[in-house]
Amino acid sequence: MVGILSAAAVAHQSPTVLLVAVGALFLLFVAHRLLFSPLAKIPGPWFTSITSLWIMYHEFLGDRTVILDALHSKYGDIVRVSPTEVSFNNAEALKDIYGIKSNYSKSHFYDMFVYYDERNTFTSLDKPNHTAKKRLVADRYAKSYVMQDAVAEKIQEHAANFMFQITKEPNALDVYTWLHYYALDCITNHLFGSRGTSTLTKPDHRELVYDLSGVKHRTRLYMIFYFGSLMSLRERIRSTWRWILGNSAQFHVRGSRLNDYGKDSVVGFRTGELEKDTISTCAKLFKAVPNNDNQVAAECMDHLVAGVDTTGDAMCITMWRMSTPEYSHVQDRLYEELKSIEHFFDPVTGTAPIGELEKLPYLDAVIHEGLRWRAPVPMTLFRVVPAGGANIAGKTIPAGYTVGCQAYSLHRKEDVFPNPDLFDPTRWLAKDPHQLSAMKTHFWPFSSGARMCLGHK
Ligand code: HEM
C-alpha cells in the first residue's frame, strides 16, 4: 500500500521536477549568455545577449535599419545586435571589415539572391570565388567602357525617352515608376544589348518593375533566410503542383516573370545576337562561359536586380526632395548651373552629353547629398569574421560571428555630417579639406573595397 502511494507521489511530482530542471537549465543558459558569451561585454540591450528573436522581429517589421541606428545613438559606435552579431559605425571598422585587403566572406543572407542555382559576382560568398566571377564582368563597368559612344548614346536615348514622357504629361507624372522604367531600360540594354527592354516607350515588360520593386518581397526574403528548408520544401510542393497543372515556370522570391525574363533574354541573345553584339555584358559572358546559360543568366539577373531599384530609388528621392517647396532653392541653383551649359543641350530631346554634365560641381553635390541623405541600400551589409577571429575597431570578435556597418548610420554621424536630416548639397562644396575627407570616408552608398558596387561610376 505504502509502495503504491510513494510511486503515485513521484508520478505526481515528476512534472514539477521536470519543470524545475528545465527552468534551472534555462536560467543557466541565460546567465551564461549574459556573463560569458564572447559578445557579453559589447554594449547593447541586455536581451540581445540572449536572443536573436528581437532583431528578427524588427527585420520582419521592416524597421531594423532605424532601430539599429537608434542603438548606435544610445550605445555608441559598436553595438551588439544579437548573440552572434555586432554592428559597427565608424571608419576604423569600415577599413577592417570592408577594406581592399579584407578577407571577410559575405554571410548566407546573400543566398536569397541566388538565381538559377548559380552563384555570381554579387552572391559569391568567399574571396576566391568572388574574384573569379568579378573578373568576367568588371571591365563592362570601367568608365572608359561606359563612356564609349555606343554605350553613352544609348543611355542618353533612354534619358530622352524619359524627358519625352515629362513633356507629354507636364502637370504630374508618377516619377517613381517612370524612373524605374528608365533604370530598367538602361541596365537591360547594358546587359543584353538590343534585346534589352524598352519600357519607356512600350508597355512590354513593365510588370518587371513591380516584381523588382514591390514591398511585398521583404517578408518572403526573411522567411527564406530564416526558414530556408521549410520554404524550399513548400516551393518544391508548389512547383510540383504547377508542373501537374502544366505550368512549369520556376518560381523565385521575386516572381516567375522576372525569372523567366532573365532566362529568355539569355537564350534569345545566344540564338539571335551572339554573332552581332560584341559589347554587351551578355556577349562577354558567353565568350567566357560558352556552355552555361544558367551561369550567364544568373550573372545578368543579379546586375539587373542590383541596378534597377537602387538607381530608380536614388533618382526618385533626390527629385522628390528638390520638388518640395522648402528645397526650391536647391532646384533653382541646379537650374542655374544647368543653364550655364545650355548650348550643350539637345533642343529636341532635352538631354546633354554625360561628359559635360559630370563637370558640374553643384550637380555632383546634389547627387552626393541624395545618396547620403537616403542611401538606396541603407542596411547592414553582412559579413562573417574569418577563421582565427578578428580585431575590429579595437574589439575582439570570434570567427564565424556576423559583423557589419550600415550606410544609414554612417551617413548620420553628427560630427561628420552636421545636421544630418537636412538635405544640404553645399556641404559637399566645403572648403575645409579635413571635413571633406571625413565626409568622403563615411560616404558609403556603394560599399567599399573589393565588393564595392560595380555600377558606382
Ligand atoms: C545608385 C545606384 C546604386 C547603388 C546605391 C548601389 C549600391 C550597391 C551596394 C551597397 C553594393 C554592395 C552590396 C553588398 O555588399 O551587399 C552593390 C553591389 C553591386 N552593385 Fe550596385 N548600386 C547601384 C547601382 C548599380 C548598377 C546600376 C549596377 C549594374 C547595372 C550595379 C551592380 C552591382 C553589382 C554587380 C554589385 C556586386 C559587386 C560585388 O560583389 O563585387 N549597381 N551596389
Automatic annotation (TrEMBL):
Gene3D superfamilies: Cytochrome P450. It comes from Cyphellophora attinorum. This is Tryprostatin B 6-hydroxylase. SUPFAM superfamilies: Cytochrome P450. Belongs to the cytochrome P450 family. The keyword Isomerase does not apply. The chain crosses the membrane at residues 16-36. Pfam families: p450. Keywords: Heme, Iron, Membrane, Metal-binding, Monooxygenase, Oxidoreductase, Transmembrane, Transmembrane helix. GO terms for molecular function: heme binding; iron ion binding; monooxygenase activity; oxidoreductase activity, acting on paired donors, with incorporation or reduction of molecular oxygen. PANTHER family: CYTOCHROME P450 (PTHR24305), P450, PUTATIVE (EUROFUNG)-RELATED (PTHR24305:SF164). It comes from the Eukaryota. Its cofactor is heme. Heme binds at residue 453.
